[in-house]
Amino acid sequence: MILAMDAKRNDLLTGFYEKMVLINTVESSLLNLFAEGLLRGTVHTCLGQEAIPTGVCAALEPGRDIVCSNHRGHGHFLAFGGEARPLIAEIMGDASGVCRGIGGSQHIQLGNFYSNGILGGMSPVATGMALAEKRKGSGGVVVQFLGDGALAEGVVSEAFNMAALWSLPILFAVESNGFAQSTPTALEHAGKLSARGAPYGIPITELDGNDVLAVHAAAQEAVGAARGAGGPQILFMNTYRLGPHSKGDDPRDPAEIARHAEQAPIPRARAGLDPEWCDTTDHRIAAEVAAIIQGIRSARIAAQ
User: Fold this and answer.
1) Is the pLDDT of residue 76 over 90?
2) Rg of the chain (C-alpha set)
3) Distance CA 24, CA 71 (A)
C-alpha cells in the first residue's frame, strides 16, 4: 500500500513538474520577447507562482468546470489545458493566436476559460456564472483566481456575500504573493487578509502555495465541497512573485527575490524527483517553446 501511494505521488509530481516548467518557460520567454519589442502593450507573468494554477486546475473537469482568470493569467490558461503556441501567438498579436491576436495578454477566452485584466473584476462575473451552473444543475464549479491586492476591491466582498447567500458552487483561489504591484501587503491591508471571507461563513483553507501537491490536495477537497452543494470555498495560498509586476518594473531588493527563489515551486518539486530526468525535461520544454517562437517569427517574415 505504501509503495502504491509513493508511486501515485511520484506520477502526480512528475506531471506537475512538467506543467510548471512549461509555465515558467513560456513566461520567461514572454519577458524576453517584450524586451525585444515583439509584444504589444504589457505582460504580467506568474514566475514563482506556478504551483497554484497547476495544482488547482488539475482538480477540475474542463468539460464542465469554468476558470475565470485575471491579468496574471497565462499560467491558468496553460494549466487548464490551453496550448502554448496559440497563447504565445496571441500575446505576440498574431492572427493565429487563440483570440486571433486581438485579445492579447489579458483578454483570453477558450472553451470554459475566461480572463480579464480589471483588478477583482471577474469576481461578479464568476459569481454569476456559478449561479447559472447551479440553476442548470450542471454540477459544474467555477474557479476564480485573484490576488491579495484584489481583496481591497469592494466588488470582491460583494461577490463573497452573494456566493454565500445563494450557496453557489464557486472556489475563490487567492494567490497571495505579498504585493499589489509594488506595494507590500502590510502597507495595503489591515487585519487578517486570509479571513476576509469569514464574516460570510465561507470555509477558508490557508496553505503553502509553493507546494504543488498540497495545493492539489486542498483544491480537490474544496472543489469537491463546492460541487457537492457545500457552497463557496476559499483557498488562500501564500506564494511569492519572482518576476516583476509587469515587464521590468521591479523595485524590490534582488537579495529578497533570490531568497524566495530557493523555495519556489519548481525547485521544491525538483527536490523530490530524479535530477537527470528533471534536466532532460527542462531542456526538452525549452527547445519546444523556442521552436514555437521561431515558427511564429518565421511565419511573420514569410508573410511580409
Assistant:
1) yes
2) 19
3) 16
Please report whether residue 3 resides in a domain. no
- Lowest-confidence range among 15-24, 176-185, 273-282, 285-294? 176-185
CATH number at residue 83: 3.40.50.970
Q: How many CB atoms lie within 10 A of CB 40?
A: 13
pTM above 0.85, yes or no: yes
Whether residue 258 contacts residue 228, with contact meaning beta carbons closer than 8 Å, is answered with no
Contact at 8 Å (CB) between 270 and 278?
Answer: yes
C-alpha cell at 267: 525547485
The number of distinct structural domains making up the chain is 1
Residue 227: per-residue pLDDT? 97
Beta-bridge partners for 123? none
Q: What is each CA distance from 135 to 166, 177, 243, in whole angstroms?
A: 11, 34, 41
Residue 5 lies in a domain: no
Residue 4's CB is within 10 A of a number of other CB atoms, namely 8
Helices (H), 36-68: 51-57
Q: Which of 148, 100, 171, 158 is closest to 124 using CA atoms?
A: 158
Task: Give the count of beta carbons closer than 10 Å to the beta carbon of residue 300.
Answer: 14
Does a structural domain hold residue 1?
no
CA 27: distance to chain centroid? 12
Dihedral sign from CA coordinates of 276, 266, 263, 170: negative
Between CA 241 and CA 239 the distance in angstroms is 7
Amino acid symbol at 196: R
Q: Is 190 helix (H, G, I), strand (E, B) or coil?
A: coil
Query: Among residues 170, 143, 153, 157, which one has the least CA distance to residue 200?
Result: 157
Structural domain containing residue 38: 11-303
pLDDT level of residue 54 (50, 70, 90 thresholds) = very high
| 207 domain residue, yes or no | yes
The pLDDT of residue 185 is 86
